[in-house]
TrEMBL record:
Domain called FAD-binding FR-type: residue spans: 12-130
Listed CDD domains: siderophore_interacting
Organism the protein comes from: Tateyamaria omphalii
Protein name: NADPH-dependent ferric siderophore reductase
Protein family: Belongs to the SIP oxidoreductase family.
Length: 266
């Protein structure tokens, strides 16, 4: 019997990225810009794609961290979104929700300064790549503003729709290059540790447009679960026209949330 030989492509080794700048974009969002030769060959057009960040231990040297990426034990990994990449300047921007020391990535970002580093794997392709709808619905809490913003900025300038951002404080509003034909709403939810119905209430109250609708919606899993049911069961949106994803869940760290998603519980 002929033996089938299958070549399995090996994943590229994680990059170790170096911080060029870091600052508070808003009171509850930290922007970190990475730069350097480690970004040689980084793919363009991946704004809105996700990536894995590997967080070094406090006081760990870059040499020791690189060795640990290669040989183990594996560092803590968290999922983030490519906000922008400037190939000419070799600069990669990633935004972090600032929630103090509650999580390893937020803790790292809150202390980030030029010369600091972390591991990077990815990125994936963007979540929405075909802009062929008549109308778009974009909704995000702070965790998903990067994917929502990247999607809006990639759209044709004559695109129409509604964009909804739920943030912690009025000062968390960001400047985003949104097409002029969008109706933009900034909702304030001061305590993200408590459930919110504000996005769903607004979406349910809208005058639903005629024509094909596509979505880019992400955020807390409880909100997403309810919105998904509304869009699929009541608005009858085809699955292929929806990007809708739970990025986190109240009371769970990312590893627990990912397990819940795999088990169908989030």
């Amino acid at each position: 019997m002929a033996q089938t030989i299958r070549n399995v492509a090996r994943r590229p080794a994680p990059r170790v990225l170096t911080v060029a700048q870091a600052w508070c974009l808003t009171p509850n969002m930290i922007r970190v810009v990475f730069a350097g030769p480690e970004l040689d060959g980084f793919p363009t057009g991946r704004e809105g794609g996700n990536c894995k960040l590997m967080i070094p231990d406090q006081d760990e040297s870059k040499t020791d961290f690189a060795a640990r990426l290669r040989d183990g034990p594996a560092p803590v990994r968290r999922t983030y979104t490519v906000r922008t990449f400037d190939a000419g300047r070799q600069e990669l921007t990633i935004d972090f929700v600032a929630h103090g020391d509650e999580g390893p990535a937020s803790r790292w970002a809150s202390r980030a300064k030029p010369g600091d580093f972390l591991g990077f794997a990815g990125p994936s392709t963007p979540k929405v790549t075909q802009f062929d709808a008549d109308w778009y619905l974009v909704a995000a809490d702070p965790s998903a503003i990067p994917v929502a913003a990247a999607t809006l900025e990639a759209m044709p300038r004559d695109a129409k729709g509604v964009a909804i951002f739920e943030v912690t404080a009025p000062e968390d509003k960001q400047k985003i290059a949104i097409p002029a034909g969008f109706d933009v709403h900034w909702l304030i939810h001061p305590d993200p540790h408590t459930p919110s119905r504000a996005q769903e209430d607004l979406i349910r109250s809208m005058d639903w447009p005629k024509g094909r609708v596509k979505t880019c919606i992400a955020g807390e899993s409880g909100v997403i679960k309810s919105l998904r049911a509304f869009l699929m069961n009541e608005r009858k949106l085809p699955k292929e026209d929806m990007y809708i994803s739970g990025y986190w869940k109240i009371g769970l760290v990312e590893d627990e949330h990912q397990k819940a998603k795999r088990d169908g519980n989030a």
